[in-house]
Amino acid sequence: MDILKERILKEASVINSGVLKLDSLLNHGVDPQLTMEMGKEFVARFAGKKITKVVTVESSGIPVAFATAYQLGVPLVFARRKKTLLGEPDAYCERVPSFTKGIVTDLIISRDLLSANDSVLFIDDIIANGDAARGLIKIIEQSGADLVGIGIVLEKSFQAGGNMLRELGHQVEMLVKVKSLENNTITFAD
Ligand code: 5GP
C-alpha cells in the first residue's frame, strides 16, 4: 500500500533497530481517511470469504479493525488486555507478553461475543514476535469460531511473528512489510 509507505516514511521514527514509533498513524493518533483506506484494502484482500466478525486486540488494533468491520458490515470485537489476578469464568482468556510494555497481560474476550457460529477475520496493527496474535488465535480456537484470515497493517519481517502466522496455514495479508530498522533507517521489504 504505497500511500501508507509514504506516510510511514514521513511520520514514523526509529526508536532502535527493533522498534518503530508510529504514534500519528497507529499507536496514539488516528487518521480517519487513511484508516478507512486500510480497511478497504483488507476487505479487497479477503474478498469472497464469509466473515461474520472482525476481532482485534485493544488498543492500537481497534481503529483499523473498526474500518474493516464497517466496510464489511459486520460487528467488531476487541480482546481486552487485563492484569488479572482472578479467573474470568465468563471469558476466554490467554496470557501473553506485551512487546512494548515488557509485562505479561491477559487477553480476554467475553464468551457472549464469540462463538462456534462465527467466521472471524483477525486484524491487528503491528506484528513483532507474534505473542499477541498467538494469544488471540488461541482464544478464537477456544471459542470454536472459524478463523478465516489474518490482516496486519505492518509486519516487521526481521522479527518472527509474520512467519509464525504464515506457517499456521491461514490466509495472511500484510499492508506493509519493514525488513530493517538498522542505521536509523526504515527499509521496506518490497
Ligand atoms: P508482538 O506480540 O507481535 O510481539 O507485538 C505486537 C504488539 O506490540 C502490536 O500490537 C503493537 O501494538 C506492539 N508493537 C510491536 N512492535 C512495535 C513497534 O515497533 N512499535 C510500536 N509502536 N508498537 C509495537
Describe this protein's structure.
It is a single chain. This protein is an alpha/beta fold. It has a single domain, classed as Rossmann fold. The chain is built from 6 helices and 10 strands, in the order αββααβαββββαβαββ. The protein has helices spanning about 1-10, 25, 30-45, 60-70, 130-145, 160-165, and strands at about 15, 20, 55, 75-80, 90-95, 105-110, 120-125, 145-155, 170-180, 185-190. The strands form 2 sheets. The protein has an 8-stranded mixed sheet. A two-stranded antiparallel ribbon has the order 1-2. The mean pLDDT is about 95. The structure holds guanosine-5'-monophosphate. Guanosine-5'-monophosphate (5GP) binds near residues 21 and 124. Guanosine-5'-monophosphate binds near residues 60, 125 and 127.
- The number of distinct helices, counting runs of at least 4 residues, comes to 6
Number of domains: 1
**Helicity level:** 25-40%
CATH topology: Rossmann fold
Shape: globular
Give the integer mean of the pLDDT values.
Answer: 95
Bound molecules: guanosine-5'-monophosphate
CATH level-1 class: Alpha Beta
Question: How would you summarize this macromolecular structure in one to three sentences?
Answer:
With 190 residues, the protein is an alpha/beta fold. It has a single domain, classed as Rossmann fold (3-Layer(aba) Sandwich).
